[in-house]
Structures are given as structure tokens and as C-alpha cells.
Design goal:
55% of the residues are buried. The protein has helices spanning 6-30, 34-37, 64-81, 97-100, 167-175, 180-208, 210-233, 288-302, 337-355, 417-423, 534-543, 548-555; strands at residues 42-48, 54-57, 91-94, 106-115, 118-128, 157-161, 164-165, 238-246, 256-265, 268-272, 316-319, 370-376, 382-387, 426-433, 449-455, 461-466, 487-492, 495-497, 504-510, 515-519. With 564 residues, the chain is α+β, with helices and mostly antiparallel strands. The chain contains twelve helices and 20 strands. It is 30% helix and 22% strand.
Length: 564
């Protein structure tokens, strides 16, 4: 069909999004590790047969995967071309972050979907496996100087050939993990999700026919581009710049700048990252596919109604210098990609706030605080507790920021304390909001959190911490104030201590009864603090969100006149 009527287009768009949603749900229910099953660190979608561009993604998958999975599918397209092109019944697997973006913990499965012997599209699944080898359990190694120290690196290979599982490939995967049972369960869950996607696509094409569905996919891409152009054209023409910093690269205690200049000309947008730090020795580099995907996520934050479709990026140019922190080539380490893309979102928001203050929120807490605690149980079996932790979101033009939210790069959730305590020999002695952690403003930021975790196993354990915002606080916008810094501490033989590099450390020894503590940042404030009504300041003090001294310092004493 050259054109699809609006009603049919809407129906087909919903049906295809539902396919991706069901694939997400299938993996979430089948996965063995809590990072997928509970935190939903995974995604599924449909991708263009020739280019690999994103056609449809589910609502519950990680937004950062929208862009990077297009690069992952293209990597498989290129690899398959070396073997005569895509073959029906094949499924490819890999985790190479320099080809597919993000980091080596994210295992990608890509399957060509054929209709009547002709390639129609690609189906893809990505999920964060609990452990993929490397020097550090859980794979967040802040001391890594090359990819090989982060995890085993798997290039695109065929896990399934003509419908048959390749046992030698599966055996290599299971041998290169500390938790093979978890990896086996996650792998089977991803394969099950792809099987379901094939089944649902078969039913859809049986009902509407391949030409109609293909026409709808083409129309959705054009519509996404048109919507993006309209959104950009509504901004004033001009150029705006912003800068922020990463604490360090985990190796050298030197701050690393990320700079962006945003330029609007009519219905085209350019983001230029010239001036960003060069390639880092430590693992806070990201590959170019990850950087481009991060731009998409930031644009979605500014224009939330834009669809999850590659057409959104067609009127957007991204300039990233060679040999830059944002354009790492193999084998540069990329394990801490989450920290770098969070800072990218912060600087894009800061620059955009100068052009469109009504569309941008202040900085969120800006770090996932990746914490691994690992050891052996009394029976000798390994345990690895890896998780990420929440903080405050930035104030917005309409409201205060969210208290204790998830990172704005994803739909992933913080695993429930009950799940973590049931699965691992730890006890959370504190899981609470952090007073005085929010940035002041007309609309204050959300509060960060305090987590205190005690090791219960009698065998010694080790902790590994990879965070950020220990030296550079989340910023406010439009006159709003900064949030509190990130603070990580641990209980050693000589009492409580903090990492020398503030936000990164490996090999922290923990005996039974020892604790680690995370005090996460809040979000930055939006608007001038003096514009905040005194009644709202008094309410925050009464709720324990804000101490009296901090209220006086940030907002002045007027709140005392209306305090209950």
C-alpha cells in the first residue's frame, strides 16, 4: 500500500507495539536474575530489514536501547552479509559494546523474520545478564583499562542455525560466567521472547497481509520524522552551550568535562560535543552508538510525545569528535556507560533550558550507583548481589521533582528490598529518604535516598562500587539550586571510610556484620528559591524533608511565620 488510512494505521501501530510489550513481559517473567525480572533492564523491538533502524519498541523497555539496538541489528546485518546474508531460522547473539552500544553486561539476541521466503524485518532482544565474566563480579569494574577486564567479549555469532541451537556457542557462554544457572535462565527467556514475537507477527500478517503492515511501518517512520521537525521548528533559532563534569575515570583523579552546543535552524537540530574530554583510561568511555542513542533519550525528555521510532532522529545531526570520551573504539573500557550518558542528558538539558525553559527539568541525581557485593556461602557456592539505586529527580516547570526515583535513562526499577534480602545473605538496615538532599527552587528537586546494607554470610565478602556525582552536584535550572553530593562509605577494620576517588572503588573487604552505606543525591531545583511559597517550605520541614537550618539557608525565615 502506498498509503494507509489513519484508522488502520492506529490499529497496526498499537498491535505492533503490543508485540514488543508482550516480548518484554515474557522475558521479565522468565528471567532468573533480578536485574531483568524485577528491575526490567531489558528491551525488545522490531527493526528495519535493510538498515536495522528502530520501527517499534515496547513501552516497558529501556529508552536507551531504542537507539543502540538499531546499531546492534545493523552489526548483525553486516556480519550476516559475510555468510551470504540473513538466513531463515538463524538467531545471532553478541555483547560487544563497541558494535551494539551500552556495555558488555547487555546480551543481544537478533533474529531475522521472514515472510513467504522474503526478509520482512528483524526482531531483537537485549537483557542485562547478572555476570559475564571479567575481573569483577557483576561486571562494573571501575578500575578496568580495557574491555577484557570488564567481561568476556562476544562478537556477533549464530547461536541458532536453521532452527538448531549451537551447543558449542551456548557452552562458551555458560563457561564464562560466575552464575551459569542465572545466565541459562536469562538466555532461555530471551529466546522465548523472540519465539513469541515471531508467533505474534505471523498472526498480524495473516490478518492484514505483508503489504499493509509494511506500508504502516513506512508511514509510522515518516510520521515520527514530521513530528520531530514540528517540535524542533517550535524552538527559537539560535545556539546555546552547557558543560558538566564526571568526577574521574576510576584510574586518575581528574575531572572530565562533557560539553555540548545546541543549534536550532528551522526544523533541524544540531548537537555538537566538541570540547568534551578525550578518551579516558578508565571505563567511563562510551561508544558512538551509545552517545547517539543517548541524544535520542534526551530529546524524548524535552519532547515526551515523540514516538519510539528512528524517524525522530532524521532531522537531528550529532557531532562527536574522534578519540573522544563519547566515541570509544575497541578495546577501550565502556563498563560505566550509564554514568556518562546521564551526564550527557544533564548537559543537553542545561543547554536546552536556555532555549525552552518551559520544556526542561533540572538535573536528576545523575548516577545509578552500581554496587556489587559478592562472596561464597557456607556450602561453597558463589553469590553476587548486583543492583543499582535511586535518587531524586529534578524540579520541573510544573512541580517538585520525584523523590527516590529511577535513573532517567530507563524504565528500569530498583529491585524491591524483599527480593534482594531473599536472594542474597544481606540485610538492609536502612532504606529511607535522605533529608536536605534536594536542590532548592520554586519547584524543589526530589529527595535522594539512604541505603545501609549489612553482610550476613559468615564468609568474607567483597564490595565493588561504581558511581558518580561525588564531586559535582546535580544542577538546578532557571535559577534553581544544586542538590546534595553523592556519598558512599563502608565499614572497615578501622571504622567507617570513604573511597579515595569519592565515587569508585574495587575490592572492599567486608566481614560478617560489616555494612556499606549509600547516600544518594537529590534532584536540582527549578526556578528561583525565593519564589517558592512559604507554606510549601513549612510543609517540607514538617515532613522531615528539610531541616530548619537548611530551610533558613535556602529560602529565608519567612516559612516560620506559617509553620504549624
Amino acid at each position: 500500500m502506498s498509503e494507509t488510512d489513519p484508522i488502520t494505521l492506529a490499529v497496526l501501530a498499537g498491535r505492533m507495539e503490543q508485540i514488543a510489550d508482550e516480548m518484554d513481559a515474557t522475558l521479565f517473567r522468565a528471567a532468573f536474575n533480578p536485574i531483568i525480572a524485577e528491575a526490567h533492564d531489558a528491551s525488545h523491538g522490531l527493526y528495519h530489514a535493510e538498515t536495522g533502524e528502530t520501527l517499534v519498541q515496547g513501552k516497558t523497555g529501556l529508552p536507551i536501547f531504542v537507539g543502540v539496538m538499531a546499531f546492534a541489528v545493523k552489526a548483525v546485518i553486516d556480519r550476516a552479509a559475510e555468510f551470504g546474508g540473513p538466513q531463515e531460522g538463524d538467531t545471532w547473539i553478541f555483547n560487544d559494546a563497541h558494535l551494539g552500544g551500552t556495555h558488555l553486561s547487555d546480551m543481544r539476541l537478533v533474529r531475522p523474520y521472514f515472510r513467504d521466503g522474503k526478509l520482512f524485518c528483524w526482531l531483537a532482544s537485549v537483557g542485562h545478564w547478572h555476570d559475564v565474566g571479567g575481573a569483577v563480579p557483576g561486571n562494573y569494574n571501575p578500575a578496568a583499562t580495557e574491555a577484557f577486564q570488564e567481561a568476556v567479549v562476544i562478537p556477533p555469532v549464530r547461536l541458532i542455525r536453521k532452527g538448531e541451537l549451537q551447543e558449542d556457542v551456548r557452552a562458551i557462554l555458560m563457561r564464562n560466567t560466575r552464575l551459569p544457572l542465572s545466565a541459562e535462565g536469562d538466555l532461555n527467556g530471551q529466546l522465548g521472547a523472540l519465539d513469541l514475537g515471531v508467533k505474534r507477527l505471523d498472526a498480524l500478517l495473516d490478518e492484514y497481509g505483508a503489504p499493509t503492515v509494511s506500508g504502516a511501518l513506512d508511514a509510522l517512520g515518516k510520521r515520527a520524522e514530521a513530528l520531530a521537525r514540528d517540535a524542533i521548528a517550535a524552538l527559537p533559532d539560535g545556539r546555546w552551550e552547557a558543560e558538566d563534569f564526571l568526577d574521574n575515570d576510576g584510574i586518575t583523579d581528574t575531572a572530565l568535562p562533557i560539553r555540548v552546543a545546541i543549534e536550532v535552524r528551522g526544523d533541524r537540530l544540531t548537537l555538537d560535543f566538541t570540547g568534551t574530554a578525550g578518551l579516558a583510561q578508565g571505563p567511563i568511555n562510551i561508544a558512538r552508538p551509545t552517545a547517539i542513542a543517548c541524544v535520542y533519550v534526551a530529546i524524548k525528555h524535552i519532547f515526551p510525545t515523540l514516538p519510539a521510532n528512528a524517524g525522530v532522529m532524521h532531522p537531528i545531526d550529532v557531532i562527536i569528535p574522534e578519540d573522544c570520551l563519547l566515541s570509544a573504539d575497541f578495546p577501550a573500557p565502556t563498563g560505566g556507560y550509564t554514568e556518562t550518558i546521564l551526564r550527557m542528558i544533564d548537559v543537553i538539558s542545561a543547554a536546552a533550558s536556555q532555549a525552552a525553559p518551559d520544556k526542561v527539568v533540572a538535573n536528576a541525581y545523575g548516577t545509578i550507583n552500581a554496587l556489587s557485593i559478592a562472596g561464597r556461602r557456607r556450602d561453597g557456592s558463589r553469590w553476587v548481589m548486583f543492583s543499582f539505586y535511586g535518587g531524586g529527580h529534578g524540579g520541573s516547570p510544573e512541580s517538585d521533582g520525584l523523590n527516590h526515583g529511577n535513573a532517567p535513562i530507563s524504565m528500569a526499577t530498583i529491585p524491591p528490598v524483599e527480593i534482594l534480602e531473599a536472594a542474597y545473605p544481606v540485610a538492609f538496615r536502612q532504606w529511607a529518604l535522605r533529608p536536605d538532599s534536594a536542590g532548592a527552587g520554586k519547584h524543589r528537586g526530589g529527595l535522594g535516598a539512604i541505603y545501609e546494607i549489612e553482610v550476613l554470610e559468615e564468609n568474607d565478602a567483597q564490595a565493588f562500587f561504581f558511581g558518580e556525582r561525588g564531586r559535582f552536584a546535580p544542577k538546578g535550572v532557571n535559577g534553581g539550586g544544586e542538590a546534595a553530593l553523592n556519598v558512599f562509605s563502608y565499614e572497615g577494620a578501622e571504622g567507617w571510610a570513604r573511597p579515595p576517588l569519592a565515587s569508585k572503588m574495587v575490592g572492599i573487604g567486608l566481614k560478617q556484620g560489616a555494612r556499606v552505606r549509600l547516600e544518594t543525591p537529590g534532584g536540582g531545583g527549578y526556578g528561583t528559591p525565593s519564589d517558592r511559597p512559604a507554606e510549601r517550605v513549612a510543609r517540607d520541614v514538617a515532613a522531615g524533608f528539610l531541616s530548619e537550618d537548611k530551610a533558613d539557608a535556602d529560602y529565608g525565615p519567612a516559612w516560620r511565620e506559617v509553620a504549624p
